[in-house]
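Re: zinc ion structure - here you go.
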Amino acid sequence: MHSSLRADWVLPVAGPPIESGSVTIEDGRIVAVESTPPPGATNLGRRVLMPGLVNAHTHLELSYLHASIPRAACFTDWVRPLLAARRTPPDQQTVAAHAADAIDEAVESGTVLFGDVSNGLGALSALRRSGVAAHVFYELLGFNMQLPGAYVDAARSRIAAEQQTATEDGLEIRFSLAAHAPYSVSPALFDAIRRDTSAHGSPTTVHLAEGREEVQLLADGTGPWRALLEALGVWTDTWQPPACSPVAYLQERGFLDASTLVVHGVQCTADDIARLRQCGATVVTCPRSNAYVGAGEPPLADFYAAGVPVAFGTDSLASVEDLNVFSELAEARRLAPAVPARRLIESATLAGARALGFERDYGSLEPGKRAALLSVAVPGGVTDVEEYLLSGLMTEMRCEMPFPPPQA
Ligand SMILES: [Zn+2]
């Protein structure tokens, strides 16, 4: 099927906005993006056509915890009730049902690709049924793990089997291993995960420099994380504080490179930001979650000024109200009022697709890519549509997925 849509604004993201442009689709793929619409194109009027959004950091399997972990003043105060709640998880069907609802809501608010972090693959059945594209990071933990070989091998076997099934079923779901965080992963486990993801040429991810307590633990081995690890019975004196920042720690271990999604980075110093820039890692920022868990505000403007690639995530429903990336963009605009709207929109689309390795199909409107388009109504009086997209689009947004939208 061949059809063309024209709209008052087309945001290809890969290039400058086009006024009164058009997008032509054939067999679910974009074949042309033009400034002179072809004859017979369906006119959508006061709408913006743009690529679907990328949520580069979620934990869909935690959706059942929505509104059950209280807002906290510091990160470890948020973690304690989270750990308590996760000790008695609901049955698999309940986990999957909540994940399915979360996926539906995210898709309705414009998301076409997830970077989903999972410890138990509890959202996988829901992801498979949804048909949405995703990179699933199978996340490993083990603070006092000295010999991670068998653990990593078992995890590799599990995702290899899931990958084969997903591929056979024609799903756009990919898998790789990931590390949770410096306060929950031993040096040996970081190294083993890195070896595995490098061998497979896959992206990997880690929560890094989220709360102040993590910075303190790595600096001198003390503080609330030390106390919590002792209370959990996993502290080990074999773990030596590296006496540096979280970013310096993992960069010097060789864990950070252009295939790494560094999630949060709230506590990054100027030196850390220079290191991230140097190694080519993408920062996945989740500013609403950072506020909720008491981590603070990420230095967003500094990331952009330094040229660090930035993508957006929402984190899980345990620490955020919804999985709407437009809401995350609105918070980013509040935190970084001087960053051009175009760069923030690129982060929520192309940068996320690139970091997840899906840029061949997603992230921009370009010939050859999937027709995963959003069509957003623009109210009268709005002249700067890119800025309008940062205003916190919620229920008033109409986005039609999948293509083609109704002829209205
Ligand atoms: Zn997370």
